[in-house]
Amino acid sequence: MSRIVGPAAPPVPVQNTPLDRSQLAVLTEAELDAADDDGLGGNGEYQDLQACDIDDLREAVAIEAEALRRVRSSSDQARAEDAYRDGLPMDDERAALWHLDLGVGAACVALVTLGARPVLSCNGGEFGSPHVFPSPLIRLYLEDADPVRLVDLANRAGIGLGIWEGKIIMQADTTDSFHQFGRLVLADSDARPTSTLSEDRA
């Protein structure tokens, strides 16, 4: 869920070139402390997902895959998406994919497992319901993520990367790319030794 604070849709030229850390903003403790009240990264409804781990990602990929299958197979995808949202459990954030937009939720969790901090996401109204942005995107801070690994995984998923006001913008034509990104991160993490994963998040 996102409530935009400031410019809604920055015109970001996306690319899959190496990220220049000197162009990236670094979050301060004061910004993080104020996030619950003021939002973060331009999102007035920012929610902190940083406690998510690889098990959460595994569950998110499975839940999102089934939800996407149901919505895409419907003759009225907008209504099916609304029904999906209305049916989300209120007492289980993981089962509800943290109430993130369908199609980008697993990717947000994947970014957290890489060490990044997603602050805004939108599926671009892909299924017919009105949304803030015209195409699927995620806005994030790099934080502890490996920029080379992030670019490689995004490139393999067909997601473009750009930088806007110090934040990374991930953008694609369809949520398929973002769901694939979640799957790729999961497969990549499963293939890495546990000690390596711990060092990545350190």
Q: In a nutshell, what does this entry contain?
A:
This protein is of the alpha+beta class. The protein is 41% helix and 10% strand. A hairpin with a 2-residue loop joins β3 and β4.
Topology of this structure?
Blueprint: H1 29-33, H2 35-38, H3 54-72, H4 77-86, H5 105-114, E1 117-122, E2 137-141, H6 147-157, E3 160-164, E4 167-171, H7 175-190, H8 194-201
Antiparallel strand pairs: 1-2, 2-4, 3-4
Helix pairs in contact: 3-4, 3-5, 3-7, 5-7, 6-7
What is the gyration radius calculated from CA atoms? 16 Å
State the helical fraction: 40-55%
**Averaged pLDDT, please?**
87
Question: Tally the helices: what do you get?
Answer: 8
Strand tally: 4
Order of helices and strands: HHHHHEEHEEHH
Structural class: alpha+beta
| Percentage of residues in DSSP E strands | 5-15%
Largest sheet, strands/sense/barrel: 4 strands, antiparallel
Label the overall shape.
globular
Spatial strand order of the main sheet: 1-2-4-3
> What are the low-pLDDT stretches, counting only 5+ consecutive residues below 50?
1-9
Distance N terminus to C terminus?
Answer: 28 Å
